[in-house]
Design brief:
three-stranded antiparallel β-sheet; alpha+beta; 15 strands
């Protein structure tokens, strides 16, 4: 794995951080390239990145947890939750749209990244209400529930509903429900920018991208994190620490079939709640890709094998999906061959504990 990643880095095909964990054992934890080229700050395994659309896994789970608490139902229409805080009246086309359809990209609501001014405004602060006003009168792409199309607009509305039912900001709910209990200490949401020291975004190596204001990305693409925290997040599903077993099962359960070319134009048969459904060499695979101005990400989890592969990059044209799939294939192959490594860095201190402590005994780099 290290040789593969080193080769990519030498060819400038990978800049970022990577973590591969199998059954609690770290197979690869490494970083390459620059977090801030101007200041000559290298990426490290613990560097903070924007995770772009991997955010949707967290927003979906927040919704499922609020459902478990009786604060909403997945098949409720969305408009009563949005009036009057975010919209004055409900557009006729939005009336049949349900919360489930927002989370599974079957609502027909516009993808806000397709708005002509989306990228021009991405660095400017905004409010959730103002963000919604930009697409509230746009026509639907299809009748709700009849098709599948990726929609960041739908996930913005999901974040607004989370705020409406909890009467708290999205970032606060994220901390109270997920990042705090799971000890994801470097994961969060900021309406401005991530904490100091985060990786600056680049379109290509050496070509800086404008900064992203978190208020524009919001609950669709706005979370920042590290590879360590994302792997801990993945394994919390297998340990049923993020939610009860029935809720975890629902999060992974297909909700809508993918188009012929796959959801996200990547290999997948269906979309669940923030997870694309696929198989890798016959093994169930759940994943989500992220791509936003200056950043690319992939989070892959093979639940039956307890393998997590996380690739976070601050260079937008990085093939994080291809890298992640190749590393996941290697992790499966080594598992099937009975391969073992020297005692290293267990992610949890013991099975079934409260996530334990991530042990960082080395800072690995491949460039």
């Amino acid at each position: 794995m290290r040789a593969y990643l080193r080769g990519l880095a030498l060819r400038k095909q990978f800049t970022g951080s990577v973590l591969v964990v199998r059954r609690g054992e770290v197979l690869l934890r490494a970083a390459a390239g620059q977090a801030d080229a101007e200041r000559h700050i290298p990426n490290r395994p613990d560097t903070v990145y924007r995770i772009a659309s991997v955010t949707k896994q967290f927003t979906s789970m927040l919704m499922l947890k609020l459902r478990d608490r009786g604060l909403l139902r997945l098949d409720d229409p969305i408009c009563p939750y949005l009036i009057p805080a975010y919209i004055r009246t409900c557009p006729h086309a939005w009336r049949p749209v349900t919360i489930r359809q927002l989370l599974t990209h079957t609502s027909g609501i516009v993808n806000i990244q397709e708005l002509p001014d989306f990228y021009a405004k991405l660095s400017r602060p905004t409010t959730t209400r103002a963000l919604i006003q930009r697409f509230v009168r746009k026509p639907l792409d299809f009748k709700p529930g009849t098709s599948w199309k990726y929609s960041n607009g739908g996930y913005v509305l999901a974040g607004a509903i989370i705020q409406a039912v909890t009467h708290r900001p999205y970032g606060d709910v994220l901390h109270r429900e997920i990042t705090g209990p799971l000890h994801l200490r470097h994961t969060g949401y900021s309406r401005g920018y991530p904490p100091a020291g985060y990786a600056k975004g680049y379109f290509t190596v050496g070509d800086p991208a404008p900064p992203i204001n978190g208020s524009q990305a919001f609950s669709a693409t706005g979370i920042y994190s590290t590879v360590d925290d994302i792997a801990r997040w993945d394994r919390s599903f297998g340990a049923h620490l993020v939610a009860p077993p029935a809720t975890v099962k629902l999060a992974f359960t297909p909700q809508a079939p993918c188009p012929a070319n796959g959801c996200l134009n990547l290999p997948s048969t269906a979309y669940a709640f923030g997870w694309a459904i696929d198989r890798l060499n016959g093994h169930p695979l759940r994943y989500h890709h992220g791509l936003l101005q200056g950043y690319a990400a992939i989070n892959m989890y093979l639940p039956d094998d307890d393998i997590a592969v996380v690739v976070l990059s601050n260079v937008q044209d990085t093939d994080t999906y291809g890298i992640g799939r190749h590393l996941a294939t290697m992790a499966l192959a080594s598992s099937n061959a009975g391969w073992s490594r020297d005692a290293g860095m267990p992610v949890w201190s013991k099975p079934g504990d409260r996530m334990g402590t991530l042990i960082d005994r080395r800072t690995a780099a491949v460039s």
